[in-house]
TrEMBL record:
Entry protein name: Adenylate cyclase
Origin superkingdom: Bacteria
Residue intervals of the CYTH domain: 2-148
Active site: Y29
Length: 155
């Protein structure tokens, strides 16, 4: 069983000096009838299919499999609800953790979110100066919700 424990935060970009090289990500979601999520993702030149369970705090089941790029691209075009999530991910090492900073484009232009994966929900970790408000349990920031209610509509 694969358990993902992840916390999400908003970011103050004025506190970041230089970003490392990023990787472009396009992802979409195939509708389900329960609380699970089926995600199709193209990350760089690789395709992935991910199935996630219902969130319980910062934890949920997650199963991810690499799939052929062309299959992922066709699924994004023909099976996934629109709009497709378009973002660039930057990996930033801080203290003993890897942070993933996502800068969104398209329908979610202007949104910047950082995530940290943990071994345990109670695990202690240091916050970088560029991390601001925690939004882990605010469903508006879940990527599958950004498809349903894009950031541009929040204002």
């Amino acid at each position: 069983m694969a358990l993902e424990i992840e916390k999400k935060f908003l970011v103050d970009m004025s506190e970041l000096d230089n970003l490392p090289s990023g990787i472009d990500i396009k992802q979409g979601y195939i509708k389900t009838t329960d609380n699970s999520v089926v995600r199709v993702r193209i990350k760089g030149n690789k395709g992935f299919l991910t199935i996630k369970g219902k969130n319980s705090g910062a934890s949920r089941l997650e199963f991810e499999y690499e799939i052929p790029y062309d299959d992922a691209n066709e699924m994004l075009e023909k099976l996934c609800s629109k709009p497709i999530i378009d973002k660039t991910r930057y990996e930033i090492r801080y203290e003993n953790h890897l942070w993933e900073l996502d800068i969104f484009y398209g329908e979610n232009e202007g949104l910047i979110v950082a995530e940290i994966e943990l071994e345990d929900e109670k695990e202690q970790f240091a916050l970088p100066s560029w991390v601001t408000k925690e939004v882990t349990e605010d469903i508006r920031y879940f990527n599958n919700q950004l498809m349903e209610n894009p950031y541009k509509n929040w204002k």
